[in-house]
Specification:
The structure is a homodimer. Chain A is of the alpha/beta class and about 375 residues long. Chain A folds into two domains: about 110 residues, Aspartate Aminotransferase, domain 1, CATH 3.90.1150.10; about 240 residues, Aspartate Aminotransferase, domain 2 (3-Layer(aba) Sandwich). Chain A contains twelve helices and 14 strands. In chain A, the strands form four sheets. Chain A has a seven-stranded mixed beta sheet, sandwiched between helices. The radius of gyration of chain A is 21 Å and the shape is globular. In chain A, about 55% of the residues are buried. At the A-B interface, helix 1, helix 2, helix 3, helix 4 and helix 9 of A face helix 1, helix 2, helix 3, helix 4 and helix 9 of B.
Chain lengths: ~375, ~375
Amino acid sequence: MTMYHDLNTPERILLGPGPSMVEPRVLRAMAHPLLGHLDPMFIGLMKEVQELLRYVFQTNNELTLPISGTGSASMEATVVNLIESGDEILIGVNGYFGERLCDMASRYGGIVNRLEKPWGEVITPEEVEKALQKRPAKIVAVVHAETSTGALTPLEDMGRVVHKHGALLLVDCVTSLGGVPVKIDEWDVDIAYSATQKCLSCPPGLGPLTVGERAREVIRKRKSKVPNWYLDLTMIEHYWGDERTYHHTAPITMNFALREALRIVQEEGLEKRFARHRENSQMLWQGLEDLGLKCVVPKEHRLPSLTTVAVPEGVDETAIRKSLLTEYNIEIAGGLGAFKGKVWRIGLMGYSSRKENILLFLSAMEKLLKQAGQSP
Amino acid sequence: MTMYHDLNTPERILLGPGPSMVEPRVLRAMAHPLLGHLDPMFIGLMKEVQELLRYVFQTNNELTLPISGTGSASMEATVVNLIESGDEILIGVNGYFGERLCDMASRYGGIVNRLEKPWGEVITPEEVEKALQKRPAKIVAVVHAETSTGALTPLEDMGRVVHKHGALLLVDCVTSLGGVPVKIDEWDVDIAYSATQKCLSCPPGLGPLTVGERAREVIRKRKSKVPNWYLDLTMIEHYWGDERTYHHTAPITMNFALREALRIVQEEGLEKRFARHRENSQMLWQGLEDLGLKCVVPKEHRLPSLTTVAVPEGVDETAIRKSLLTEYNIEIAGGLGAFKGKVWRIGLMGYSSRKENILLFLSAMEKLLKQAGQSP
């Protein structure tokens, strides 16, 4: 019989597209003894998680909670609850996660209209308006912060345009929530989802989600049952609500972790947290430029929490990443899809966004690029 | 702004239908710093989780892995991957979770044939055969250990009968895996799912699953795409397989926990673990009898990991549970569905199944029943 050694994970410096590093306080929260999921103490804790999620989403939406799966599950929850077979959905596709939304929507019988932009660019309200004029839709979905490209799509004017055409606005906030402003109420976003392992610096395993009144009304008026049991928001809502109707068993320890991670966000304060992410990203961008490296996304749309850098001609993309990991315990990522082999992705999210990490990473990169025959 | 206090959970003695208590070693494993989900070290750890899951499922099935959601998600994964619209499925309904299988199957267009038995009874191979003779099915689904009733359906002869009629055998092992024998290969089960928070004594958040060759072939030959992105086993398989194709981000910390929980199962050894569950349940049953309480399920089908006890006439079911929790930190559960208000459910699962817990629980019950005017 194989014997398995004690778990002994190194202290990785996680500067990829997520997971980010987890604050020691959050790690310790997970070592707490379990409560039953119907224990009054756990019910109190669930309410706190909801309140704290409303704070980071900047919303008063009652239906705000973490889906009991990763960010992909909360993404699917938004799609499957809103779409009924034959519904038109306009999806902004400017990266990998827009593609994924198209796949999900079509699995549920949605008729997908793709608003395509080159990877690294953003979707504008004008383009959305034009597309809706040509072909109306029930839902418009955009990715706020594309984790595959590092582009931040401005949303200030998106809700107005979408609602003018009678559609609902669905937003992916996976890599923005907790790192850059996400103003669900002010921007009039109808439904949005995120993940815990990005700018919230909690381990992966829960998918924060918020649903506004307009979207709830659409869900209430569905003609067909939601074709997905685990992600049926009507049942999940009654589990998280005062009725506490049994649905599934919430991942208790993960909720301990999320509560602690959100408490840390609240203690720092959103504005200070956004400023930290902004300032640190500027330090990174300056450093990359000094090394002669080029960021893919123009500065005005560049995401503070995730930066894509072009791999210089003649440099072995994977070899550099491997050396960073094995020699310096630093993780960054390569590109996905259209960007595969062409870019590195460097995340500065939540607890990972610290000056010491940036300085170390830049020094390591300088060394490795020199060894690869590239000097600034 | 509301300030939230430090997490400070009491040491609950969890004797309900799950979650069970978590071993201190598992709690400590969750406090380890995170690895990236594509880190070679995490990939090695995933392989170990798969090997250890094969050990507890007693199977050589290559496709054995934890779904990144709770047990309900792994339940849905089995249903949605096997069923295509219009497929016939025979479901043994002798409790709450058989009902849930019916709901899930019908959401995916399955034509459900219910094999109903009163709550607390079991489904026999003879009954399954009779039902299949009347009306063939593509899939037969049974709940091995019904968490709502505490009945254990014998499976030794089920696979033979089901396969004779050309169907696939789908089994719910949520409350059996790690507590009573689950012999996937010997019993010729085609697909089975479980949860982590029962007899494996790991927090909830992952859903172990195993798929045999016959079921994989059915999945490969589907005419339609799986109408569920998050639970599409073909994609999940390539994420867990050597290709490591990105699908979602696995709940990393939860996998640390599951690995440690499974390592503890392996160290104890399955046979010794089953014997411990059996012996401790006998101590509980004897003690309940001495208190004048009646177990609902006849001894020959009674589940060691979960016991349902009839609430005596005139006793306030919820008041007793409340006193157990607030005065003695002991959690047990009430009944679900048909058993609501009529039974208590007492779990002795994994790390919760210890003599000191049973003795304490019985003493507390004796005290509380006396106070309620019931004396043995």
